[in-house]
Amino acid sequence: MIDSRDDERALALSTLQQVFGYQNFRAQQEDVIVSLIGGRDAFILMPTGGGKSICFQIPALIRSGVTIVVSPLIALMKDQVDNLVALGVRAACYNSSLTAGEGRNVLDQLHQGRLDLLYVAPERLMSDDFLNLLRGLTPALFAIDEAHCISQWGHDFRPEYIRLGQLRSLFPAVPIAALTATAEKQTRADIINCLQLKDPYRVVCGFDRPNIHYSLVDKVKPYQQLCEFLLRYSEQSGIIYCLSRKRVEEVADKLSRDGYQAAAYHAGLAPEVRRSVQEDFLRDDVQIIVATVAFGMGIDKPNVRFVVHYDLPKNIEGYYQETGRAGRDGLPAEALLLFGYADIALLRGFVEKNNDPEKLRTELHKLNAMVAFAEAGICRRRVLLGYFGEVIDADCGNCDNCLNPPEQYDATEYARKALSCVYRVGQNFGMGHVVDVLRGAENQRIKTIKHDRLSTYGIGQDVSRDDWNHLLRQLIQLGYLEQDVARYSILKLTEQARPLLRGEERLKLCKPRTRVQRGKKKEHKIKGQNYDPALFEELRRVRKQIADRDGVPPYVVFGDASLA
Ligand code: ADP
Ligand code: MG
């Protein structure tokens, strides 16, 4: 008898080739597929665009019975189901977008065993009626897509996902696959616990996206900066993320007025508008989507060439996922972040509205990590991947910091002041208070705790609050300090801090870019709303010229803005 595993491998490969039309599996897909076919749970962590769907779609076609796929967004389901149906797969979705008749039809198909995959919204799946129906069927597999939605620690928590934790006890014999692109440790643990996965086959793929060029500019005149950036992309697709719906509308309007094919997308628009915007984008009928974070989860558009963050994202998970929508075809792509200090204050304001102290703490910590990424003077990829627990051997050589390293200065004395201050306050306070002490602030907290009697009180009056924060964040990144997330992000010294404190080591740090830029008037080629139409026409002409000359729209590595 041949090894059944070999049988399954052969079957999986022929399904990949015949149904999906791909020649080979990507790294790790095959093993997890074979393992799922064999009935073992799976935990699949792959970056956006990594090819997670096939990991459950192929087992769904091979195991008998229907595979139930849980997906958080209706648009996402529709997308995947349309693709599958186009490939001749018996797939359907069951959600609130269906009419009563359509819904009945899907349930009939399900009942008669005429479906291999059924995509369901979590609240539909966990309704008593639906569960009763399923119990008579014994599904082949539960695939929980975007599984990070189950974790309160995750950046996209959805309460409806919590009830999915009952699936294991309701259907003990049915394997469960959890899929996500969110890598951070606590979220992973939450997913495995909540879904009660039993010794899941784990796939953890690298998070590096070497074809994405990460860069950041100080936000001075964002719209003009955006237009300058867009000059390099005459016809190519891109996404611009803004923090608010209002900003989305504004930017989309201005871009349209300035001759771009741009459309707005946010959760305040009618579902049919959103659907058609998304479809236009997928079909390349719209070049640029200006959107809130509502746009993009699971969107499979290979040729997105750039993602711009017009405002600072709330956390690194979101930033990584959003930028990850660029360059899914493996060709060069750019991620540009416009970074302004006002955004930090704004976001902090949002976060502080949180009534749940646990949540407040996590979100603040995440925001700080995001700011630290933005302020980083070292290889961006190192910081980004480091956040997800991945260490890279060498700097990427392709981000703004690698290509154009920020200016450094001898920060030894400042760093020593900061570290001794952390020590003097008993390693028991967060960044805000440490900076207050350094700057000799006269607030109630300082007085109550009598920190104005410390030897470090006021020793850093000559340095601005922003700059102290910047310095402390660098000390954290470089490992001189650590933040205790579980305890209000208080700062603690690490072993590494000793020699520096004792004066046995000198330290160079990066100058903050923003301080350098602040107040400095920049020359801008395009004027915002009152743009000069003649000049703008000229710029459009240049873009077109490059596109015609090269046969493709201009792609210029960031930092080289020459249009010639
Ligand atoms: P994810 O859900 O991980 O973000 P998808 O499952 O949507 O990613 O897959 C991303 C793209 O990669 C899709 O276009 C998919 O068809 C393609 N893909 C997946 N597996 C393979 C493969 N083995 N060979 C070629 N293309 C693949
Ligand atoms: Mg997916």
From TrEMBL:
Residues 33-201 form the Helicase ATP-binding domain. GO terms for molecular function: 3'-5' DNA helicase activity; ATP binding; DNA binding; four-way junction helicase activity; hydrolase activity; metal ion binding. Residues 225-375 form the Helicase C-terminal domain. It catalyses: Couples ATP hydrolysis with the unwinding of duplex DNA by translocating in the 3'-5' direction. GO terms for biological process: DNA recombination; DNA repair; DNA replication; SOS response. GO terms for cellular component: bacterial nucleoid; cytoplasm; replisome. Keywords: ATP-binding, DNA damage, DNA recombination, DNA repair, DNA-binding, Helicase, Hydrolase, Isomerase, Metal-binding, Nucleotide-binding, Zinc. Gene3D superfamilies: HRDC domain, P-loop containing nucleotide triphosphate hydrolases, Winged helix-like DNA-binding domain superfamily/Winged helix DNA-binding domain. Its EC number is 5.6.2.4. Belongs to the helicase family. RecQ subfamily. This is DNA helicase RecQ.
